[in-house]
Amino acid sequence: MIEVEGLSKAYGSTLAIKDVTFAVEPGEILGFLGPNGAGKTTTMRILTGYLPATAGTARVAGKDVHAESMAVRQRIGYLPETPPLYPEMTVESFLHFVARIKGVSAGDRTAKVTSAIVRCNLEEKRKVMIRKLSKGFRQRVGIAQAIVHNPPVIVLDEPTVGLDPKQIIDVRNLIKSLAGEHTIILSTHILPEVSMTCDRITIINQGEIIATDSPEHLVERLTGKGGYWVEVAGDTDNALAVLRSVPGVLQVEMRAADGLADGHSRFQVTTEADDVGSAIAAQVVEQGLGLFELSRHRASLEDVFINLTMQETARETGETVPAAAPAAVPETAPAAEQTEPADPTDTTKEELL
Amino acid sequence: MKTFIGNLLAIYRRELQSYFNSPFAYVIAVVFWLISGLFLIVLLLSPQGIIAQVSASDQLGLGQTYDVPYEFLKLYLGLLGSLSMFVLPMLSMGLYAEERKQGTLELLATSPLTNWVVALGKLLGVVTFYSAMLVPLMGLELIAFSASDPAFPLSLFLLGHGGLLLLGASTLALGMFISSLSDSTVLAAVMTFGVVLLLWVVDAIATALPGPFGQSIGHLSLLTHFTDFTEGIFDTSGLILFLSYIVLGLYLTAQSIDTLRFQRS
Q1: Option in B10, B22, B112 nearest A74 (CB)
Q2: 3-class DSSP state for residue A243?
Q3: What is d(CA A4, CA B187) in angstroms, rounded to the nearest whole number?
Q4: How far apart are CA B195 and CA B178, in angstroms?
Q5: Which of A67, B16, B81, B203 has the lowest CB atom count within 10 Å?
Q6: Given an 8 Å threshold on Cβ–Cβ distance, is B17 in contact with A82?
Q7: How do A153-157 and A183-188 pair as beta strands?
């Protein structure tokens, strides 16, 4: 449905994106993930025909975004970073206006506007001036204007930014309900968002695509090995030796001990396989060390993201980065809204959330 | 062609709607009406007014004859023209600057619309609003003219106001272009005012310049051509000049939006 090949965009002498290539299948939700300034918005603006590309081609529904710009614009719904709304219009009249300029025929307009209003849960605000709406409702009107002409392709630039958690969930559900019928590209720098809503993820950093895959595959790809967090009481050197002696353990590293009781220490254990936990427990107990915590560490999307973007940056600056994710946190499952107090060293991740 | 008209109407109606729903536009209209109403009364009825002066000269028996309605129309339109020079930049300043600020330009630019349609629709919208501001004043003038004997020719009245409307449309078209250059409405208003002022008095500058260069610059003056209209002289060169300003404004706007998309960072 969307094919992007070798797309580059230069602003003056700086390259905002370089050689971006990806494709989106019909009915799929693609998450466009990257830190701020990575080139997400630029890519989306090229796709929607707002900006011309410096090099490369992009096709939406088989039409070139530059050569057949008008045809593409008709087939695309776009929510920019700030929802484009006229504050002095009512929700309904605004949607009528958008339907009209998107080329919806007069007979269809009322039905399509009503259906967009219903889908975005805006019935009660139908006759309200947009300037009187709260941020959450404005965002919904923004989504409504992107879907009002029922376009095959929807491009959403940071659709949940600045919303409260309840609204975020509403918007995510709305986006998920649009999949299937519509092909969606969604950009974000919020990680749980992509893992929850998207079928596939494209990670972009400094204008270059570094990975495109399903969330599960990305995690797998990065962490072939298993890992555990272990908190024990007793002599640190002894504990290190004990942990290292467990068969199947590849590497043991001591981690920040802040907030731990006296005499306790915390280790990150990297193992060959994913099932060494019982052996570790048995060994620790056998050697008379107190076992306080043993949890399996699964790399989350955060780890993948940070790792990939760090590697990329490092490759450019010529530094090396430790293979293990610097922001690894014990986790039972990739939680949606991670509210647990994070590791004190984990500031990068805090910012990302 | 059908979609062109449809799109044009959509932009036009939205633009108009935004004027009629915005308190700011009402404030401008009210101030405009207040001042121009005051002009009307002062010009007609005050002790220094045109009627008082004519009757005074009659009493003195100077023997001069005045065409009072004609003199009044000329003076009044001149005043309205000067007043419009202040008011029009405030009407045009938001045309694109506001769209840029709100981010709605991105909606328009990613919709199947050409820049021309958007610019033309917007210009028609704001010109309609300006005309709506003139209508009550025309009513007042007609009431005054109804007392005239012999009856005042309607053609002169229409020609004069047509000139005012053309002057307004040219100013608004240039103002629209300036508005498309930045996302600050205040900046747009100030710059438009500067440009209009310059075009208003360019004939004064031109007389100071010798030779054909000065002459040709003088033709660009808005004031000279507008004065022709108010005096009841229909000159096609004036009409062409005003239309050229309008087309130029539209063209520059469409180009500037295009350039904006190329440069946008």
Answers
A1: B112
A2: helix
A3: 40
A4: 9
A5: A67
A6: no
A7: parallel
Please check whether residue B109 touches A, CB under 8 A.
Answer: yes
Assess contact for A236 and A201: CB atoms under 8 A: no
Contact between residue A89 and residue A112 where contact means Cβ atoms under 8 Å apart = no
Q: Say if A142 is an interface residue toward chain B (CB within 8 Å).
A: no
**In this complex, is the C-beta atom of B110 within 8 Å of any C-beta atom belonging to chain A?**
yes
What the block records as the tokens of A174 is: 């709305």
Report the pLDDT averaged over residues B174-185.
92
Say what the pLDDT of residue A330 is: 41
Distances (CA, A) of A199 to A150, A163, B24, B111, B242: 21, 23, 48, 28, 58
Question: Looking at residues A137-154, what average pLDDT do you find?
Answer: 91
Q: What CATH fold (topology level) applies to the domain A2-220?
A: Rossmann fold (3.40.50)
pLDDT at A257: 65
Residue B99, Cβ density class (10 Å: 0-12 exposed, 13-18 middle, ≥19 buried): buried
Cα B249 to Cα B113: distance, rounded to the nearest angstrom: 18
CB atoms under 10 Å from CB of A249, counted, come to 18
A347 band by pLDDT with thresholds 50, 70 and 90: very low
Chain A closest CA to B158's CA: distance in Å? 35
Range with lowest mean pLDDT among A265-269, B106-110, B119-123: A265-269
- Residues of B within 8 A of A100 (CB-CB) are 6-7, 10
Q: If you ran DSSP here, which 8-state letter would residue B148 be given? A: -
B108 touches chain A (CB under 8 A): yes
Q: What pLDDT, on the 0 to 100 scale, is given for residue B80?
A: 93
Residue-wise pLDDT for A273-284, tens only, equals 767 788 888 888
- Chain B within 8 Å of A50 (Cβ-Cβ)? yes
Which candidate from A11, A84, A102 shows the least CB-CB separation from B102? A84
- The pLDDT-based confidence of A301 (bands split at 50, 70, 90) is low
The domain segmentation of chain A, as residue ranges, is 2-220, 224-296
Of B22, B106, B264, the CB nearest to A88: B22
Flag if B261 and A11 touch (Cβ within 8 Å). Answer: no
Two tokens at A281? 């427990």
Q: Across chain B, what does the average pLDDT equal?
A: 88
Q: Please compute the mean of the pLDDT values over residues A339-352 and round it to a whole number.
A: 40
The CATH code that applies to domain A224-296 is 3.30.70.3100
Sign of the dihedral defined by the CA atoms of residues B214, B215, B221, B223, in that order: positive
A 1-30 residues inside an 8 A Cβ radius of B: 11, 16
Q: What is the mean pLDDT of residues A57-73?
A: 88
The pLDDT, as a whole number, for residue A349 is 39
From the centroid of its chain, how far is CA A268?
Answer: 26
Nearest to A88 among B18, B108, B113 (CB): B18
The neighbour count for residue B160, using CB atoms within 10 Å, is: 25
What is the pLDDT, as a whole number, of residue A234?
80
What is the per-residue pLDDT for B192? 93
Cross-chain CB nearest to A84 (options B13, B103, B262): B103
**Alpha helix ranges (H) inside B60-210:** 68-92, 94-102, 104-109, 115-146, 154-179, 185-200, 202-208
Answer yes or no: is pLDDT of A112 > 80: yes
Dump pLDDT digits (tens) for A14-55. 888 888 898 888 888 998 888 877 888 889 988 888 888 888
